[in-house]
């Protein structure tokens, strides 16, 4: 919660940034212009497959492939297509508005977190618009879902989707600022809590038992256990040669025009790490498990540029000093926009506090967030929500409008919109568009996850392995259940009051690519019990609650060549819909709660303002600035932080740009609210005066 003092400090910061900011950016960012009880709770599948794409295919063996999966064909020749993504007044006028009331009509397809966030910001920043949200299911929230169970021991909250977020203190992205901004808008920031317990302790299951990963506390006993594990466990085979290889070959190349151009290439996570380690054992034993936990994907298909290894990949490919991080200009633009918004004091406090935290959640996971967003939208006079309404087809019409045909229990309906923002999966959107018009989106792929939540009335079933949970690498033998990992919900918690022991079992992912079948709920339940007994030694019990959910096509896979594929999609969207249809969500940009909300924010603000960033800097009172000296210097040569329009008319304009033109190796001190920024937590001195600007000391 923002205090009076923090608001006062904010205003002090606002008044002093311009000259200091110019000095910082001239040295840090400037770049040469040339370069039910006791049983199973059956949940309805909530999958975008219902929009037209059905999960299919046959069981295949797990074979590593080095070839990129999607087609990397060059974009079609579209020289005659209008490329200017910033609409002029004439282009906006050509698209027109609804004649009845003079308001723009905007449709948002999908009521998951991206769609909800899109509508949330449209409602606030597009007062000239009437917004309609179409959601096929009977509820909002997408993959965020849960239910309360009453037991003799007390109430239990069972989750069947994402339930916590990781603070982004070590990242060079600023998705978290949008998350904090939404919490402040909704007034629920005080309900967000640290995930306590043993959440920092994690395990891998290999080859037939849990192996604790190195981590805190750095006590003598724990350090001894770490050393013993590294020496004895088969999991770490290949560690020593990999370390020696990295020491010999792990320095990034010098920053040159050639190395800068190299960041436009791509490679899989697996091949990149093999290149660094000179060995594939750690890749298959350790890194593949990480990809299972985050993406449910194949480490030899996922692009290194679009995973948690992106920062390392850019450094080792683009080169430069290790004290710098290759960072997109759009991250700085986003930070400046959010920190210039009406919630700047609250966002400042939340972001600053998150530097010392790891995992965050509400007491009910993320249900508080979804329910608050839903209530907020229901209170907005310019928002309509249509549940149980699926999109059957999208057709471009004259004037840049889009005709949307929907189907519900009341029958079919057709309505024209001035703008449509799609947050459903890329493949589902391709199926709704005119045949063949969005072939690039049709080439995308997503995996399905079988989620089974189990609750046992007995406490302490995890006492021998306290922690967040475990993941299963691709090299683990006898993984008959196709297990990806298990979350120890009763250990990673925000409250000590919940009774019993609670687990979430995750199966499937890329293991099920090509399957001709998926397990029934009863089969999935039995598989989960078998996996828990084998890995944790918890025997079958009849007195427990279980919740089973099949999440079809829930995790989009950004394979090698994703950026080129999205560049093709950008051109096809322009060609087919002339700017009337834009996209947002994890099919295109990173998956996860925070990235999904960031995608919704950017899509909404681009449509609401009908221009590129900055979006909020122009709204501040005169004389009050924070980091928004970027707004003043937008057109100044040498201060080109706002590099083009990465959203554009399609939501994908940034993919049409070369990576080398959108990134810069910035010093860690320039990444505010991040652990590597010098004094990132102590931004203010002992007198409450600002001592840092964007993490860099004032001179």
- The number of E-state strands comes to 25
- Secondary-structure-based class equals alpha/beta
Unreliable stretches, pLDDT < 50, 5 or more residues? 1-39, 42-96, 687-699
What's the story with the biggest beta sheet? 8 strands, mixed
Q: What percentage of amino acids are in beta strands? A: 15-25%
Span from first to last CA?
A: 31 Å
**Strand order, sheet with most strands:** 1-21-17-20-19-18-8-9
Radius of gyration: 25 Å
Task: Produce a short descriptive summary.
31% of the residues lie in helices and 19% in strands. The protein has 699 residues and is an alpha/beta fold.
Description:
Helix content is about 30%, strand content about 20%. It has about 700 residues and is an alpha/beta fold. The protein has a domain at about 195-330. The radius of gyration is 25 Å and the shape is globular. It starts with a helix and ends with a strand. Residues about 1-40, about 40-95 and about 685-699 have low confidence and may be disordered.
Which helices and strands appear, and what pairs or packs with what?
Elements: H1 4-28, E1 40-42, H2 89-95, E2 104-109, H3 113-125, E3 129-135, E4 146-151, E5 154-159, E6 165-166, H4 175-186, E7 193-194, E8 202-205, E9 210-212, H5 220-232, H6 239-249, H7 257-262, H8 269-277, H9 281-294, H10 310-318, E10 324-328, H11 329-339, H12 344-354, E11 359-361, H13 367-378, E12 383-387, E13 390-396, E14 402-408, E15 411-417, E16 419-422, H14 426-432, H15 439-442, E17 445-456, E18 469-471, E19 483-487, E20 501-508, H16 521-536, E21 545-557, H17 562-577, E22 581-583, H18 593-609, H19 629-632, E23 663-667, E24 692-693, E25 696-697
Parallel strand pairs: 1-21, 2-3, 2-16, 3-12, 8-18, 16-22
Antiparallel strand pairs: 4-5, 6-11, 7-11, 8-9, 10-23, 13-14, 14-15, 17-20, 17-21, 18-19, 19-20, 24-25
Helix pairs in contact: 1-12, 3-13, 3-18, 4-11, 4-12, 4-18, 8-9
């Amino acid at each position: 919660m923002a205090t009076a003092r923090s608001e006062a400090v904010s205003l002090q910061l606002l008044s002093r940034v311009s000259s200091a900011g110019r000095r910082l950016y001239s040295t840090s960012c400037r770049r040469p212009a040339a370069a039910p009880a006791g049983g199973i709770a059956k949940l309805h599948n909530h999958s975008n497959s219902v929009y037209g794409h059905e999960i299919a295919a046959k069981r295949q063996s797990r074979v590593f492939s080095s070839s990129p999966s999607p087609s990397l064909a060059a974009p079609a020749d579209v020289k005659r297509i209008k490329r200017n993504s910033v609409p002029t007044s004439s282009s906006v006028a050509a698209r027109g508005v609804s004649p009845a009331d003079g308001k723009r009509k905007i449709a948002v397809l999908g009521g998951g977190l991206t769609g909800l966030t899109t509508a949330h910001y449209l409602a606030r920043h597009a007062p000239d618009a009437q917004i309609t949200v179409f959601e096929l299911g009977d509820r909002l929230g997408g993959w965020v879902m849960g239910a309360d169970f009453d037991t003799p021991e007390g109430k239990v909250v069972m989750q069947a989707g994402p339930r916590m977020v990781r603070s982004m203190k070590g990242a060079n992205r600023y998705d978290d600022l949008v998350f904090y901004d939404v919490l402040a808008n909704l007034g629920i920031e005080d309900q967000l809590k640290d995930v306590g317990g043993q959440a920092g302790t994690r395990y891998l299951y290999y080859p037939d038992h849990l192996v604790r990963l190195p981590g805190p506390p750095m006590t003598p006993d724990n350090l001894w256990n770490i050393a013993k594990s590294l020496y004895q466990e088969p999991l770490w085979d290949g560690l020593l040669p990999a370390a020696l290889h990295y020491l010999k070959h792990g320095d990034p190349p010098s920053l040159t025009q050639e190395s800068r151009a190299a960041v436009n290439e791509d490679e899989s996570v697996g091949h990149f790490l093999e290149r660094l380690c000179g060995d594939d054992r750690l890749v298959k034993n350790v890194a593949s498990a990480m990809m299972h936990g985050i993406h449910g994907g194949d480490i030899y298909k996922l692009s290194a540029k679009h995973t948690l290894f992106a920062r390392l990949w850019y450094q080792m490919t683009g080169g430069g000093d290790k004290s710098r991080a290759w960072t997109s200009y759009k991250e700085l633009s986003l930070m400046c926009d959010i920190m210039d918004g009406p919630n700047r004091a609250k966002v400042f406090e939340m972001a600053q506090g998150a530097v010392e935290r790891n995992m965050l959640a509400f007491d009910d996971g993320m249900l508080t967030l979804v329910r608050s967003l839903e209530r907020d939208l229901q209170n907005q006079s310019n928002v309509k929500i249509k549940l149980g309404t699926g999109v059957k087809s999208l057709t471009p019409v004259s004037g840049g409008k889009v005709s949307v045909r929907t189907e519900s229990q009341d029958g079919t309906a057709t309505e024209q919109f001035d703008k449509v923002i799609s947050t459903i999966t890329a493949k589902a959107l391709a199926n709704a568009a005119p045949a063949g018009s969005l072939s690039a989106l049709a080439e995308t792929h997503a995996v399905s996850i079988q989620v089974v939540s189990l609750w046992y009335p007995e406490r302490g079933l995890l006492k021998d392995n306290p922690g967040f949970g475990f993941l299963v690498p691709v090299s683990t033998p006898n993984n008959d259940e196709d297990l990806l990992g298990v979350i120890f919900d009763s250990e990673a918690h925000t409250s000590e009051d919940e009774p019993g022991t609670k687990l979430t079992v995750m199966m499937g992912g890329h293991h099920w690519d090509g399957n001709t079948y998926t397990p029934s709920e009863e089969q999935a339940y039995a598989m989960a019990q078998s996996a828990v007994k084998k890995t944790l030694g918890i025997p079958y019990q009849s007195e427990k609650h279980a919740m089973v959910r099949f999440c079809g096509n829930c995790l989009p896979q950004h394979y090698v060549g994703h950026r080129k594929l999205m560049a093709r999609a950008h051109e096809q969207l322009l060609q087919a819909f002339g700017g009337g249809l834009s996209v947002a969500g994890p099919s295109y940009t990173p998956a996860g709660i925070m990235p999904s909300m960031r995608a919704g924010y950017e899509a909404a603000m681009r449509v609401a303002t009908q221009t590129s960033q900055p979006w909020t800097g122009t709204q501040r009172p005169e004389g009050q600035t924070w980091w928004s000296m970027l707004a003043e210097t937008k057109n100044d040569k040498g201060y080109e932080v706002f590099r083009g329009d990465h959203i554009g008319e399609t939501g994908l304009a940034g993919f049409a740009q070369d990576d080398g033109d959108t990134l810069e190796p910035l010093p860690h001190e320039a990444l505010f609210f991040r652990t590597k920024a010098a004094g990132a937590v102590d931004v203010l001195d002992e007198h409450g005066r600002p001592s840092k600007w964007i993490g860099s000391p004032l001179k």
